[in-house]
Amino acid sequence: MPTISPDAVRQPGDLAPLIEQSVLRADAAVDEVRRACAEATENRFAAVCVRPRWVPEAARRLAGTGVRVVAVVDFPLGQAATADRAREAREAVGAGATELDVVLPLALLRARDYRRLVLDLGAVVAAGAPVKVILETCRLSAVEKVVASALSLAAGAAWLKTSTGFAEGGATEEDVALLRQVAGPESGVKASGGIRSAADALRMVRAGADRIGTSAGVAIVRGRFEPAGS
Hints:
By secondary structure, this protein is of the alpha/beta class. It has one domain (12-221): Alpha-Beta Barrel (TIM Barrel). It contains nine helices and eight strands. It has helices spanning 30-43, 55-62, 82-95, 106-110, 114-125, 142-154, 173-183, 198-207, 217-221; strands at residues 19-23, 47-50, 68-73, 99-103, 131-134, 159-161, 188-192, 211-214. The protein has an eight-stranded parallel barrel with strand order 1-2-3-4-5-6-7-8, surrounded by seven helices. The protein is globular and about 45 Å long.
């Protein structure tokens, strides 16, 4: 699992290999996707994260650059049937996605139907690309976060991700640290939701994040580590 030690981050530009530049608004236009791809290529970000409809465009723009194409699945609610989620995942991979971010089926977690939850996530994993499971941590208790994380990893997920960025809360240092503890050294942790500055991003990396999901990647790598107003 590629990562950068927090000690190696001495200036905001050092965060670039961890950043997934995100374009996830439902009404995002093609020009926004193209701009995100150009920014990711110029700044050598890890990836561009888009909705499935924009995967072919992102794949074309990023071909040969080394920047990954991440597609969200059943986003942002995580309420579709397993067959639909699996089909969306397969289609995204077929269109050029190299990673998938799928929303946890919260209803199954709340019902304690853990077998179905693992089978559901496993069906997305079977699409063939590394999967991050979006837990939407602001809606989970501490126990639910641990259980959801463990089940996600049991289903074959490669990463745990904090948030969609479309709920009432985003990433926190405490949640990132908890996911890091469950993930261990073999799995990744993506902090996403509300990360807008270099200082925000550095705090998440220090808490244990391997990736930073944000629409403010350029501002982050060109910013300062001091909190705003300091």
